[in-house]
Structures are given as structure tokens and as C-alpha cells.
Amino acid sequence: MLKKHVLEDIKKLQSICEQEEKIELKLNFDMLRSRKQNDVNDFFHYEDNQLVGFIGLYGFGNTVEICGMVAPSYRRKKIFSKLFSQALHICKKREYTEILLNAPGHSVSGREFLKQIPCSFTFSEYQMKWAKKELEDDNSFVTLRSSQSDKDIKIEMQIDVECFGMSLTEAAAYYEQLNTEEQQHHFIVEYDGQTVGKLRVSYDKSEAWIYGFGILPSYQKLGIGKAALKQVILQQHQLGYDVFLEVEAKNKRALQLYETCGFNSYHVQDYYLYSF
Fold this sequence. Notes:
Elements: H1 4-21, H2 29-32, E1 42-47, E2 50-60, E3 63-70, H3 79-93, E4 98-104, H4 108-114, E5 119-130, E6 142-146, H5 150-164, H6 168-178, E7 184-191, E8 194-204, E9 207-215, H7 224-238, E10 242-248, H8 252-260, E11 263-274
Helix pairs in contact: 5-6
């Protein structure tokens, strides 16, 4: 786990960079707070006891995402290039099959750096916030319950395989990593008593983020996903949280579902595939 003062340094640098470019960086603080002590996933550059450069690795099975930043007044000094080289060395050592570089869609500095390395744009992801739309929990056959048993975890992994194209090995590695993270709640979606889907809610202060929302293909197009989404929104809203989620721009069905339930996009994250 990263020390408290280091997390504070990262947040301070994030605030400076975001204000400069009017962007929002995706630094996955739920994962930063849960780093294993001996794993090298984060790279820092300090000058005069001030953090001015940072890169984090976020592994998901055989895929790793890279996101980072450098203070505006310290750019064009090869700081990010140095950190990126260190991060890339670790990625290759761990033999990730896919390296994704994440940059806010409107980040000028991010685009300029990406022009200098071998990579290609692959997809965009919308960050969305719920706008407190009136919703009715109108499907009594769909229920949410906490994921509690080893059997539930196996079902969650199988849903990742069928819905998100993971291999079983990747799904198992992903859940091993998720088990180290704090401030989150795993839910099982049931339809008429049968397990058909799952989702996860991660908490950051007053925010509740919905991740990994999937319904088994054989139960899709029955309104189950919409009913489950309504339930988790209402539940988190009643607990006092602002509700957020992320969705790939090319996933038109999911995007339409979220918009129907009251979500509006407010930031775009672009992903680039690094070429080995």
C-alpha cells in the first residue's frame, strides 16, 4: 500500500495538472490505495521534495493500463519519457500481452507525447454521472444481493469470460487483484432466483462508481440489465452517494441504456495500444 503522504502528493499533482488543461485524469485511486507492498507499479519523480512526475500501472489480467502526469512547469525536461521507460520495462518483464496508454481526450500534452511513441488509437471511454432522474424499481423478478461465497466469485469470473472476452486465467488474476482493493462492494444480479449477472461498486469519498456490469448473453435483451441498474442507482443515491460509471463509446447499446437511466457524459478518456 502506498503511504498516505505519497497518495496526497499524487492528488496534489493531479489537481495542478487538471486545472492547467481543464481535464480529468484517470488515476484509479481505488487501486493506488491497495497496492501490494513488494509490487512495483508506480514511478515517481521528485524535485525539491515536491512530486512533479508520476506514472501508474493498472493491471487487468494480461492487459495493463498506463496513465501518468508531469507538472506543467516541469514539462519538456524528459521527465515523463524517463518514467515511461521505467514503466515499460516492468510491463515487458511481466509479459503483458496488451499495453494500453490512457490519456484524457482533451489533453494536449498527452497527445503530443503519444505522437512520439509507437502506438495507435483503439477506443474512447465516456465517464458518466447520474443526473438524479426519477426512476421506478418496476421489475420484481430482478434482485441484487451481495457476492459472498466462492461459488459467487466463480460465477463472476464466468460472466467476465462470456461478457468481456477474458480468458478464465485472466479473470482469475483480475479477481485476485480486486480482492486487495478496499472500499468496494460486489453484487450478484438474480432473475427469478437465478444468477444472471454481476456488478461492482467502488467508493471514493462521496462518489460511487459502477464497474464490471455484465449480464449473461442468454439473459440479455429481457430488461434485466436496466432493472438491475435502476436498483443499484437508487440504492447508492439513498445512501447519499453521487453515482458514476464508465462505458466505451463504441458500446452503443450500453450507452443508450445508461442515458435512458439518467446518466450524462462529462469526460472522455482515450486509449492507445502500444506497439511492441
